[in-house]
Amino acid sequence: MEITHDVIILGGGLVGLTLAIALDAHGLSCAVIDPAPPATTLAADFDGRASAIASAPWRMLQAIGVADRLEGQGCPIAAIRVSDGLAPGGLVFDPAPEDGAVGIMFENRRLRVALRAAAEAGDRITLYTPARPAKVNRDSAGVQVTLEDGQFVRGALLVAAEGRNSPTRGAAGINIATWRYDHSAIIASIRHERPHGGIAHEIFYPAGPFAILPLIDDEEGRHRSAIVWTVASADAAGMLALGERGFAMEAEKKMGGLLGAISIASPRSTYPLGFHHAARITGERLALVGDAAHGIHPIAGQGLNLGFRDVAALVEVLVEARRLGLDPGDAQGLARYERWRALDTFMVAAATDGLTRLFGLKGRPAAAVRRFGLSAVQRIQPLKDRFMAEARGETGALPRLLQGATI
What's the number of domains the chain is made of? Predict the structure, then answer.
């Protein structure tokens, strides 16, 4: 079977395009197949979410040439404040100035535009968008994808970057552990009276966390933040049905007047919250990345960063296999990728699930335990440093891309 691409990527979202760009930067060719029309995904109103890019994944984006396209479009996170409701005290992650920001907040639409432009400029990237696979064959000789329009795309390795409901994962017979939290996240951008100072807030309520994430000021100089408001699933529709003024008043109560008067700056949206974790992330000439491999609660803002960590590890495995004369679909290389990512993704998933359940406990005893725990972490510097390193994405055996170096 003729190999025309090193890698075929199913899914052209944030993780899939980042993988393509990183492979191209290291001399590997790839095809990206995605059913969504670019005109739709690049529209300003396609995805109102914002993402915190941790410092280690940001170094990868710098190394592969994406960061330059995002210059001035993100808000550095100077500190993270964690509190149990509006009670005083809590926990503050505030790195020393020489350590730089914890991460950078970007609106997803800005990330998507930059990644698409970088992918279109790639010498070894072929974009099939919009396109949908009608048939996928994987065997010892290689991978062949037949598109609905009759085109054949051939490669050595298939990567599923299709998101939480990955059909490729299901077709490969890969089981997942999954459950729903009976919660939904309400997403919106807000304008506010006082500057945020680059501080991200995670305010925990028994009904779910309320996150305030700093964004850059708008064109008129008005202060902005993104909010991720977790509510009971049964209440989500009612919250969205509120008028903008009523919604803003409710949000302001949750914020305790932290940023002064607020107004709504974007359409509101909601999505259900759940957990899933694939039993394995590889198969014959197959690798899973991003949400196809794992999906976690947004409580710590690590979902996209986990996907970027998948990308960094997989690219390093594939580049080193090429140098040894092995093809990208070689079973030994995929086994190394499986081992490298298995523990990290499980530990982050378990930690976020545990936090979600701990802060969801009601009653004064539970609140007292939480506040004691937060104050203890605040006082014990080595423990605090460990949490800070996790937030930055700097724990474990870091792939070279996450260290800011090419492979």
Answer: 1
